[in-house]
């Protein structure tokens, strides 16, 4: 879904994420708030921040990286 494999029938508005992508920590905190209700371990957060920083400077790619890592994490799979 994040790669756009569904063609034009499914779209994702990345603007809330790309506007925060300049600073990796801000982006990851926002993603954690949206998708995890703010519940993320410091170790997990730091690992995702490092991955976002390593993904380059493109806001779209940084956003996709953060969203993907948050949503595929074990912390996102817990039913609370």
Structural account:
This protein has 80 residues and is mostly helical. 54% of the residues lie in helices and 0% in strands. It has 4 helices and no strands. The chain has helices spanning 15-18, 24-36, 42-54, 59-71. Helix 2 (24-36) crosses helix 3 and helix 3 (42-54) packs antiparallel against helix 4. The longest helix is centred in the middle third of the chain and has 13 residues, at 24-36. 22% of the residues are buried.
Features:
80 residues, mainly alpha, 4 helices, 54% helix, 0% strand
The quaternary structure here is: single chain
Record field, number of beta strands: 0
- Low-confidence parts: none
Number of helices: 4
Percent strand equals: under 5%
| Helix content estimate | 40-55%
State the end-to-end CA separation.
Answer: 24 Å
Structural class: mainly alpha
Largest sheet: none
Mean pLDDT: 88
Task: Work out the radius of gyration.
Answer: 12 Å
H-E order:
HHHH
Shape: globular
Note the topology.
Layout: H1 15-18, H2 24-36, H3 42-54, H4 59-71
Task: Give a brief description.
The chain has 80 residues and is an all-alpha fold. Helices cover 54% and strands 0% of the residues. The mean pLDDT is 88.
